[in-house]
From TrEMBL:
Residues 8-247 form the ABC transporter domain. GO terms for cellular component: plasma membrane. Keywords: ATP-binding, Nucleotide-binding, Transport. This is ABC transporter ATP-binding protein. It comes from the Bacteria. InterPro entries: ABC_AA/LPS_Transport, ABC_transporter-like_ATP-bd, ABC_transptr_urea_ATP-bd_UrtD, BCA_ABC_TP_C, P-loop_NTPase. It holds the Pfam family ABC_tran.
Length: 247
C-alpha cells in the first residue's frame, strides 16, 4: 500500500503482557492534518496503543510507521525527536515556574555545550513562546506562576510545552477530563486550529468533545479494531452499539 500521505501507519500491531494480548493485530492509518479519536470501553487497549507509538512499550509484533520511519525499533527519546509528542493525563508542568518559563524550558535545545539548563532568551525563543502562548489562551498570563493556573489552563500549558517542539503528530490522553464546558469548547478550538500543519491522535470518552474534533473515530474492543469511520458511522455500527450497551 502507498503510505506517503499517512502521518501514521499502524499495521498488524500486537503486544502481550504475560500471554494476555492487550493489543491484537491492530491496523489503522492517520492522514496528515487529521484529528483521529480512539474510543472504546475500559481495558480496550487505547492507552497501550499510545504507549506503543511513543516507544514506552515495545510491540510483540507488527509495525508503526511515522512519516515512513519505522518507530518500533526506536527508543522513546528518538521518537520524540522524530516529531511525535505525547501528553499524559496528569500535567507534568513545573508548578513553581511561570507560564513563560515552562514554555521556554520546553524549547528544543539541540546539543549545546552549555547543557540543558542554559536559558536561551534569544528572539527565536521569545517569538515561539509568544506564538504558542496565544494559541493556548495564556498570552495574558505569561508571567503567572503555573501553580496559580486553573486545571484547564494547566492542561493547555502542557499542550503548549509540546507545541513548542513542533511535533508533526500530537497524542493526547483524555485532554478535557475535569475541564469546564467552556474549557472543553476552547480545547476543541485549539485542536482544530493546530491541525492546519500537524495531526492529532486523541483518546477520549466525552462524546460531545469527540463530535467537536474528530475527523474519524477508531473504536477498539479487547485490543482489536471494532469499527472505524466518521462518528456518525461508528455510532450506528451494530457492533459498537452492542459493545457499549453490553457495558
Ligand atoms: P484502555 O486505555 O483502553 O482502558 P489499556 O491500554 O490501559 O486500556 O489496557 C488494556 C489491557 O492491557 C488491560 O486489561 C490492562 O490491564 C492491560 N495492561 C496494560 N498495560 C499493562 C502492563 N504493563 N502489564 C500488564 N497488563 C497491562
Amino acid at each position: 500500500m502507498e503510505q506517503k500521505d499517512f502521518v501514521l501507519a499502524v499495521e498488524g500491531l500486537s503486544v502481550s503482557f504475560d500471554g494476555f494480548k492487550a493489543v491484537n493485530d491492530l491496523s489503522f492509518y492517520v492522514d496528515e492534518g487529521e484529528i483521529r479519536v480512539i474510543i472504546g470501553p475500559n481495558g480496550a487497549g487505547k492507552t497501550t496503543v499510545l504507549d506503543l507509538i511513543c516507544g514506552r512499550t515495545k510491540a510483540t509484533d507488527g509495525s508503526i510507521k511515522f512519516r515512513n520511519k519505522e518507530l518500533t525499533r526506536m527508543k522513546e527519546h528518538q521518537i520524540v525527536h522524530a516529531g511525535v509528542g505525547r501528553k499524559f493525563q496528569n500535567p507534568s508542568i513545573y508548578e513553581d515556574l511561570t507560564v513563560f518559563e515552562n514554555l521556554e524550558l520546553s524549547f528544543p535545545r539541540g546539543h549545546s555545550v552549555f547543557g540543558a539548563l542554559t536559558f536561551r532568551r534569544d528572539k527565536q525563543v521569545i517569538d515561539k513562546v509568544t506564538e504558542v502562548a496565544e494559541m493556548i489562551f495564556l498570552a495574558d498570563l505569561l508571567h503567572q506562576r503555573a501553580d496559580l493556573l486553573s486545571h484547564g489552563q494547566k492542561q493547555w500549558l502542557e499542550i503548549g510545552m509540546l507545541l513548542i517542539q513542533d511535533p508533526a503528530l500530537l497524542m493526547l490522553d483524555e485532554p478535557v477530563a475535569g475541564m469546564s464546558v467552556a474549557e472543553r469548547k476552547k480545547t476543541a478550538e485549539l485542536l482544530n486550529r493546530i491541525t492546519r500543519d500537524r495531526s492529532v491522535l486523541v483518546i477520549e470518552h466525552d462524546m460531545q468533545f469527540v463530535e467537536d474534533i474528530a475527523h474519524r473515530v477508531t473504536v477498539l474492543h479487547q485490543g482489536r479494531l471494532l469499527s472505524e469511520g466518521s462518528l456518525e458511522r461508528v455510532k450506528n455500527d451494530p457492533k459498537v452499539v452492542e459493545v457499549y450497551l453490553g457495558h
